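Action item from last meeting closed. Structure (260 res):
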């Protein structure tokens, strides 16, 4: 009887141990659910995107760093030609081109304008128009940058009380009249003193841009003559050849004389 009870106890114990082992085998591995220490975890490497040509493009690389001034004159190399004015900073305008314009040279001949009673040396081959009684217009037949240079000389009467201060106002009035037509952009320099026919006067330079993009630069000079008269000179020139045409104005001024 005791042996039977002992065998039964052993059998039950064996069955109990087998059941526990089977139940333990169905549990997941506890270590799999333990969060790893972030300091020991190897981070996933972020993929590096190669730079493309578009990413390397810098829009500022196309911006010119030069500073230009309102109404100032520039030669074909971008050098400033001042007219006695205080420079005014502007956004970059009319930047120098990759191929600078060559300087123009002119041969000069004596021009006598009887209706104005003056003589001077002018470029040979320029067209002369004396159809107006008080004005002569000289035009360069050669076109540069869609523009033909012109030099207009006018002698007109003024009131007996006309003074140098009125000459200043006259220069400004002429500039205002020129700038109000055809130009989408218009800037001028301040006035500076300049003599004509050894008489005191003033002048100023300008820069304008037409609707089609044509750049025009020019100079207006006015001097107070004897006998209640003023002489007005206006040179208008293609912008990138401005220096060459300002040389024409200088030569005109140096050779200008009154005749009887």
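Sequence:
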């Amino acid at each position: 009887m005791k042996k039977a009870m002992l065998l039964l106890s052993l059998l039950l114990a064996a069955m109990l141990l087998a059941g526990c082992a089977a139940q333990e085998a169905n549990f997941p591995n506890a270590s799999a659910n333990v969060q790893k220490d972030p300091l020991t975890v190897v981070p996933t490497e972020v993929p590096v995107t190669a730079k493309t040509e578009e990413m390397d493009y810098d829009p500022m690389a196309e911006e010119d760093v030069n500073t230009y001034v309102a109404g100032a004159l520039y030669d074909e190399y971008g050098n400033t030609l001042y007219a006695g004015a205080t420079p005014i900073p502007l956004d970059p305008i009319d930047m120098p081109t990759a191929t600078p314009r060559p300087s123009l040279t002119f041969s000069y001949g004596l021009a006598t304008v009887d209706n104005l009673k003056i003589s001077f040396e002018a470029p040979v081959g320029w067209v002369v128009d004396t159809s107006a009684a008080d004005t002569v217009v000289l035009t360069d037949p050669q076109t540069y940058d869609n523009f033909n240079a012109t030099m207009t000389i006018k002698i007109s009467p003024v009131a007996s009380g006309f003074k140098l201060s009125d000459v200043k106002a006259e220069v400004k009035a002429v500039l205002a009249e020129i700038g109000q037509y055809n130009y989408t952009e218009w800037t001028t320099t301040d006035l500076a003193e300049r003599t004509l026919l050894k008489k005191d006067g003033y002048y100023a330079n300008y820069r304008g841009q037409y609707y089609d993009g044509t750049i025009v630069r020019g100079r207006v000079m006015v001097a107070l003559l004897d006998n209640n008269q003023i002489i007005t000179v206006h040179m208008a020139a293609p912008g990138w050849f401005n220096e060459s045409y300002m040389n024409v104005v200088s030569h005109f001024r140096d050779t200008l004389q009154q005749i009887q």
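Note appended to the action item: The first helix runs from residue 2 to 25.
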